[in-house]
Amino acid sequence: MYEDLGIFKIAKAQMDWVAQRQQVVAENIANANTPRYLPKDLKPLSFKDVLSGSTAQPVTAVATNPMHVVPDMGPDPFKAVTQRKTYESTPDGNAVILEEQMAKLGEAGDKYNTAAALFQKYQKMIRTAMGTQ
User: Fold this and answer.
1) Contacts of 49 (CB under 8 A, 6+ apart)
2) Which of 14-18, 46-50, 83-87 has the lowest mean pLDDT?
3) In the chain, which ranges are E strands?
């Protein structure tokens, strides 16, 4: 019922994006001591793409024969991109700045909470309008 409404589609996409970004940032933090590791980040979420449905289903391979091996692309519509413009790096080439990654985690938490609150408020509004509380 809710998946057809634009505001719920946006809130869900935002929450999915934030969850994926937290995973990417956690991977960056885990590799903070790996030589020549470049941090990754997700491209910002475009609400225009969410409403048009272009982020909903990624392109996947199709098996036309039962002997074909189909790679598992996963349900992830968001792609992590390696950051090429790093401003600092250690002598071993690692470009992860822990303070920056922690700030991204905090920002992701705030965005998730905002999207969850928006989802709950609109759900309550619809229930009130329907007369079912």
Assistant:
1) 55
2) 83-87
3) 40-42, 80-82
